[in-house]
TrEMBL record:
Domain of life: Bacteria
PANTHER family, A to Z: BILIVERDIN REDUCTASE A
Keywords per UniProt: NAD, Oxidoreductase
UniProt protein name: Uncharacterized oxidoreductase yvaA
Domain Gfo/Idh/MocA-like oxidoreductase N-terminal, first and last residues per copy: 5-118
Originating species: Brevibacterium casei
Membrane-spanning residues: none
EC top class, as a word: oxidoreductase
Residue ranges occupied by any GFO/IDH/MocA-like oxidoreductase domain in the UniProt entry: 127-236
EC number: 1.-.-.-
Pfam family, one: GFO_IDH_MocA
């Protein structure tokens, strides 16, 4: 079987990492790249460098990775769907939920594989967390909390922290819980003098009555990427910076205090940090996409429709921040 012919548009911070992985991926050949500003990071190697998506499509590709600014995703995505080219589009999928939903429908109608670059799903700590949750290691899930904080990335100019960062947490929460959002409420701040919000605190309720909360900002001097899941059996903590997963078990402890004997609570039990392989998440994401394009339905990519649903929740957060209301989805 011949290699899949891959193209890449956008050679910036994420684009160069996509190029590295495409060049190393078995069964795939990076045949051409495109960027209006050229190859500033010298990642193209010997392949042709074009200025726009039209030339890249005309050159002949089976699928394309889209790593350009968010406001360009919609038009590029439409051209790829019209040309019959599979795609991996970086998150957020589009500038608005309406645009994202249209892209999802275009790719589905054309029978194409479309994926969104919500890379956190492919972090080994979250993959292991989901496997253990599905195996019933925690029992009933009560709460999912995320913290995604760090310095401002100057390369992000066309969206705020909700669509750029909180979108990760929305996607991984629905994926881990296997359930969508019922309600969401949020408060956001603008502290860096930009048009878009740079800090948000959000709470919500999933359709299965699991409570969620998200702390996200671009105003913290050190990075934090943590997902906590509390349930009947204790608490899982996944750190996606280190790809570590730790389990804090509940312990049953008898109390001799008659006055509090009526209170049914939990006590600290054993703490376990799990050992498991930790491949690069972006490499895993590319492997899953390659296999899905080749027809392997067992590879669970982030679909365009799922990416659109993430944007629906993002827009509900923005609406809640402006109105002060809890938004029902």
């Amino acid at each position: 079987m011949s290699n899949l012919r891959a193209g890449l548009i956008g050679l910036g911070m994420m684009g160069r990492h996509h190029a590295r992985n495409l060049n190393a991926l078995e069964g795939v050949e990076l045949v051409a790249v495109a960027d209006a500003f050229g190859d500033v990071h010298n990642v193209a190697g010997d392949v042709p460098i074009f200025s726009d998506i039209d030339d890249l499509i005309e050159f002949g590709i089976d699928y394309c990775v889209v790593a350009v600014p968010t406001h360009l995703h919609y038009e590029i995505g439409k051209k790829l769907a019209a040309a019959g080219v599979h795609a991996l589009i970086e998150k957020p999928l589009a500038g608005t939920y309406a645009e994202a939903l249209e892209l999802a429908e275009l790719f589905e109608t054309a029978g194409l594989v479309g994926a969104v670059g919500h890379i956190e799903r492919f972090n080994s700590s979250l993959q292991e967390l989901r496997r253990r949750l599905n195996a019933g290691d925690l029992g009933n899930i009560y709460q999912i909390s995320t913290s995604r904080q760090g310095p401002f990335p100057s390369r992000i100019a066309d969206v705020g922290v909700i669509k750029d960062l909180a979108s990760h947490d929305i996607d991984l929460t629905t994926w881990v819980a296997g359930c969508g959002y019922k309600t969401v409420a949020s408060q956001s701040l603008h502290k860096s003098g930009r048009e878009h919000e740079d800090m948000v605190a959000a709470t919500g309720l999933l359709l299965n009555d699991v409570t969620v909360n998200h702390l996200v900002n671009w105003l913290t001097p050190t990075k934090e990427r943590r997902t906590t899941v509390v349930g009947a059996g204790g608490m899982f903590v996944a750190d996606t910076l280190t790809s570590d997963l730790t389990f804090f078990a509940n312990a049953s402890v008898d109390s001799e205090w008659q006055e509090i004997s009526h209170f049914r609570g939990v006590a600290e039990g054993n703490v376990t940090r799990f050992a498991f392989p930790k491949p690069e998440p972006l490499r895993v994401e590319h492997e899953y996409l390659r296999d899905a394009i080749e027809g392997d339905s067992s590879r669970e990519i982030v679909t365009l429709r799922q990416g659109a649903e993430v944007l629906r929740v993002c827009e509900a957060m923005l609406d809640s921040s402006k109105t002060g209301n809890t938004i029902t989805l």
